[in-house]
Design a protein that fits this description.
The complex is a heterodimer of chains A (about 100) and B (about 500).
Chain A: H1 3-12, H2 19-36, H3 71-75, E1 81-82, E2 85-86
Antiparallel strand pairs in A: 1-2
Chain B: H1 9-17, H2 23-41, E1 44-47, H3 49-64, E2 75-79, H4 106-113, E3 117-122, H5 156-164, E4 169-174, H6 180-185, E5 189-192, E6 212-217, H7 220-230, E7 260-264, H8 274-289, E8 293-297, H9 305-320, H10 338-346, H11 351-364, H12 369-393, E9 396-400, H13 416-420, H14 427-432, E10 436-443, E11 449-456, H15 461-475, H16 486-489
Parallel strand pairs in B: 2-3, 2-4, 7-8, 7-9
Antiparallel strand pairs in B: 1-3, 4-6, 5-6, 5-10, 9-11, 10-11
Helix pairs in contact in B: 2-3, 7-15, 9-11, 9-12
The chains are: A mainly alpha (about 100), B alpha/beta (about 500).
Chain lengths: ~100, ~500
């Protein structure tokens, strides 16, 4: 994996990388990808994918009103909370 | 004489019921040990001393009133990826350094309901990603058996706490071996139950389809007792299974006559340390002497398990860790615009977490999805099929838990692929969702503990525990305690 490819994936994942990581990750990731290439040789034409190991029937819960957390608890961990909102940097440009 | 802080849950339970000790005395013994060794072992990220003594007092009051819930007054440690109401829950990550959950994880709520006392929150690899607890962003936990070695991971703090006498038992989570590998490295018992048997509600998710909650204990009976409390359907976890929970302690009959025990030849390869191999063969021979029949079997797709596991765990992690964006809780880096805020905030993740998120993002890209992610899910079906076939002939399987005993600090951190090899015998059970138990089965020449793993059919924890218990009762291992040599190494 090249540094350019790595940086593109990091941007997709919204992950900032340090200079050290930019140096060591491409080689480490290439090693991991070569480990995974062993799967290419497995015949899976007859196999369906397994997303979850144990099948559980889906069901609907009873439509009952239950208590929920009070707002002050919900917002207690917020890094920047104003009037019942999480405030973030401006998203829409000013005219 | 065995100290209170070194006793099993069932020994403590018997003493409490006989009125020979109080919950307070037990907790005092535990905190005395913590005060003596914790500066060296570093099992805990957070200690809950005041609240624990208040819980112990309530437990003593319950006993005095003639009530004795199953874990009344038992001091338990909980891995720091379980939400605990009012107690910070960090996942050993800077991203959650000051996060205080407003609710308890279901497993924690059930422990409290059963009268257990929460001693503290234990160290782990950040978000459970690692096999040595070296990926914690806060502290480095040492193996009580040899302070120059890792305790294993990711539940390294939980295993070290139990081994060091800093708690009677602990909860861990296991995504690819994170209960069993540290339990084996620290000479204690660890159980990963069947997928869906124990609720994951309130556990900070690493990989949904692979994460399991389970006990780390001093013996198999304690694993059964703890499982009894945490097992069972929880409507808050959609993957939790609606099924009656059997009596696990009643399954410990000591009788394994006629059981067929499979020994997968793929788990006995060249990567296996000769001393570990000898100990596991010794365990198999003992089972035969107790009336079981041991047969060599094959799990032909086991060689693909590590690669399959890596693709699936990375993909699921990249999705689950997306929630740590600095908006609603946890750490936030200041930035001019929102996208830069996400990127700078998430730059605080450790290297292993970043590598997995990056790899997962790569596997899930439209151009790679089929070749990597879908392929891995199909190979998972084949691995699961191998077990189904094996269990047509066998009641349980026996294998090593880890290829080696505990390794030294820094030995595997530079080459992630080498670190991943620590999980080669454990991750198959996560892919297939089957129960797996590790039990101490000997020591290396250097005096390090070795674990043997028993795997069973889905929801057949009773048989897995029965075999593990019968083995443990007859193994005759020397009753060693880790000699922490704190002063010498300090």
């Amino acid at each position: 994996m090249t540094l350019k490819e790595l940086e593109a994936i990091a941007f997709t994942a919204r992950i900032g990388l340090t200079e050290e990581e930019k140096e060591v990750f491409p080689e480490q990731i290439s090693q991991i990808l070569s480990l995974i290439r062993v799967l290419d040789g497995v015949d899976t034409h007859a196999a369906a994918p397994t997303h979850y190991p144990i099948r559980q029937e889906s069901f609907l819960r009873e439509d009952a009103v239950e208590p929920s957390l009070p707002l002050e608890q919900v917002f207690a961990n917020g890094p920047d909370v104003v009037d019942g909102y999480f405030r973030v940097p401006r998203i829409i440009e000013e005219e | 004489m065995v100290q209170l802080n070194e006793m099993t849950i069932h020994q403590l339970r018997d003493l409490l019921r006989a009125g020979e000790v109080s919950c307070r005395e037990i907790l005092e013994a535990v905190f005395a040990k913590i005060d003596a060794v914790e500066s060296q072992i570093r099992s805990y990220i957070t200690l809950c001393r005041d609240e624990a003594f208040a819980q112990a007092q309530r437990a003593d009051e319950m006993l005095a009133a003639g009530e004795a819930p199953p874990l009344c007054g038992i001091p338990v440690a909980v891995k720091d990826n379980f939400s605990t109401a009012g107690v910070q829950t960090t996942c050993a990550s800077r991203l959650l350094e000051n996060y205080i959950p407003p609710f308890d994880a279901e497993a924690v709520a059930r422990l409290k309901q059963a009268g257990a006392v929460l001693v503290g929150k234990t160290n782990l690899d950040e978000f459970g990603l690692g096999s040595s607890t070296e990926n914690s962003q806060f502290c480095c936990t040492r193996n009580p058996w040899d302070l120059s070695r890792v305790p294993g991971g990711s539940s390294g703090g939980s295993a070290a706490a139990v081994a060091a006498g800093e708690a009677a038992a602990a909860l861990g989570t296991d995504t690819g071996g994170s209960i069993r590998q540290p339990a084996a490295f620290c000479g204690v018992v660890g159980l990963k139950p069947t997928y869906g048997l124990v609720s994951r509600y309130g556990v900070v998710a690493a990989a949904d389809s692979l994460d399991h909650v389970g006990p780390i204990t001093r013996d198999v009976r304690d694993a059964a007792l703890l499982l009894q409390v945490i097992a069972g359907w929880d409507p808050k976890d959609p993957t939790s299974v609606r099924k009656d929970v059997p009596d696990y302690e009643a399954a410990l009959t000591g009788n394994i006559k006629g059981l067929v025990v499979g020994l997968p030849k793929e788990f006995m390869g060249d990567e296996l340390d000769p001393e570990v191999k000898e100990a596991v063969f010794g365990a198999a021979n003992l089972l035969e002497s107790l009336g079981a029949r041991v047969e060599e079997i094959s799990l032909p797709h086991a060689e693909y398990a590590m690669a399959t596991f890596y693709v699936i765990i990375s993909a699921e992690i990249s999705s689950n860790l997306a929630r740590f964006d600095g908006v609603r809780y946890g750490y936030r880096a200041e930035a001019e615009d929102t996208v830069s805020m996400f990127i700078k905030t998430r730059q605080a993740l450790g290297q292993e977490a970043k590598r997995r998120v990056l790899m997962g993002t790569y596997f899930l890209q439209a151009k790679n999805y089929e070749a990597y992610f879908l392929k891995a899910l199909k190979v998972r079906t084949l691995i699961k099929g191998d077990f189904e076939k094996a269990f047509q002939r066998c009641d349980v399987l026996i294998s090593p838990t880890t290829p080696t005993a505990a390794f030294g600090f820094g030995h595997r951190t530079q080459t992630p692929v080498t670190m991943y090899q620590s999980d080669i015998y454990t991750c198959t059970a996560n892919l297939a969702g089957i129960p797996a138990l590790t039990v101490p089965c000997g020591y290396t020449g250097e005096g390090l503990p070795v674990g043997v793993q028993f795997l069973g059919k889905p929801f057949d924890e009773p048989t897995v525990l029965r075999v593990g218990h019968a083995y443990e009762q007859h193994a005759g291992l020397p009753a060693r305690q880790p000699q922490m040599e704190v002063e010498k190494n300090g």
